[in-house]
Amino acid sequence: MNIISSFFQGISVSFQNDGYLNATEIAKSLNKQVGDYLRLERTQEYLSALVERLSETGNPISDKKQLVIVKKGGKSTLQGTWLHPKVAVDFARWLSAKFAVWCDEQIETILYGNREYSSPTTPDERAGLRAAVTMLTTKRGLLHNEAYNLVHQRFNVEHIEDIPREQLSEAVEYVHRLALEGELLPKSNSYQDEAYKDKQRIAAISLMTVGGEMHHRQKAYFRKLDELLVDAKEIIDLIQQYNGAIYDGLCEAQFKLCFSSEIMTEGRRLGRERASLR
Question: Where is the KilA-N domain (predicted)?
Answer without folding.
Answer: 2-110
